[in-house]
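Re: Re: ligand-bound prediction request (bumping)

Still looking for help on this. To restate: I need the protein modeled with zinc ion bound, output as structure tokens. Inputs repeated here so nobody has to scroll up.
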Amino acid sequence: MGDTRLRFLAEDVRIRVVTADTTQTTATAQTKHQASPTTTAALGRTITSAALLGSTLKDSNILTVFIDGDGPAGRLVATCDAEGNLRGYVQNPRAHLPPNPEGKLDVASVVGRGQVVVSYDLGLGEPYSGSAPLVNGEIGADIAYYLTTSEQIPSAVGVGVLVSGENEVEASGGFMVQALPTEQEEDEMTARRSSVLQDIAQRTSQIDSISRMIARGATPEALAKRLTEGLAIRQIAADELRFHCRCDRHRSAQVLRSIKKDEIEDIVNDEGYVEVNCEFCRSSYRFNAAEVEKILSGEYM
Ligand SMILES: [Zn+2]
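Reply:
Sorry for the wait, this slipped through. Here it is.
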């Protein structure tokens, strides 16, 4: 079984629930980036956030989450597309810190203080983006604060990654609960909604570790039921998720075109080739002198 993301709706109170198991995606990201336990947790949480936020993407839309903290991990970036393709990287994958006082991976300290930026590329030219300050660097609360303030959607978000003593990803996943806008002010529903949201907020605060629940076998469906106990929810979508990078040789050639011509020519003269490295998946694409000449003259397809 691969990674999955489920979407649910509680129609009578207009609440949306998204849950995801991202264990294999995070494990792949860890392998590709040779990430330490702490940065694996930070990267997995960022990728999971992209998966949750990206649950409503359509067509060729792409969402990117940037966690720009001043901690030793540096910048964290993850993208999600409408097909459930996820990818991500962390600036300093080897950064590692001792566990925090609760004995958990110290994601907050490895991320530090800074901001979260979420960018939506809807294929209409300039991407639309919003930002919010990081609340605590644990990423889940940071995304929830971003959604509530920047997108004005009251949300609760939990993301977690469990890494074993041997630095293996045992579980990764998360949830997002959102109060959807209501069209008209219905007093009865508003009252019920706020009490439901309070219940959910209480339950989310009781979930000590979402990754431990997943490690013990909780499915995305079980997570959603646990969060919304007693509420009538209807599953509206099930999506497969995977680590998959969009980079290829053609796109890498485009990257070369955006760099100053004489800079590339200097590299080719020194090395005999030029290499484009994808920061998301660590693939590298090498172009020899003849290929570079074609790229720069616009002949290379
Ligand atoms: Zn790539």
